[in-house]
Amino acid sequence: MFTIDNIDYLESLGGLMKGLLVLVGLIVLFWIFTLTSLVIVEVFIMNYITISALRTILGLLIYALSVAVWYLVSVFVARHYLKKSSTPHSNN
């Protein structure tokens, strides 16, 4: 059974499987960020702000912020795994 403490399971996976897990994780993370931004816009901005132009600006800012956070997280994850995979192996 896989748990957070069981890192040996991830180490035993092949490179392709690790890459697919990271890709699926990033897609799920993007989906969560998108849904979160939509909920924030729908619940808070649409209900409490009456000026249409201000609602538009705030909605676009929240969406841009969620895209920027998703980009930074995906760059961090990609650099982490690229750095991890580019270390020389000892079985040369």
Number of strands: 0
The tally of helices reads 3
Instruction: Give the C-alpha Rg.
Output: 19 Å
Query: How is the biggest beta sheet arranged?
Result: none
The share of residues in helices is over 70%
Order of helices and strands: HHH
Can you describe this structure?
The chain is an all-alpha fold and 92 residues long. Helix content is 80%, strand content 0%. It has three helices and no strands. It has helices at 7-12, 15-48, 52-85. Helix 2 (15-48) packs antiparallel against helix 3. The longest helix is centred in the middle third of the chain and has 34 residues, at 15-48. The model has no long low-confidence stretch (mean pLDDT 79).
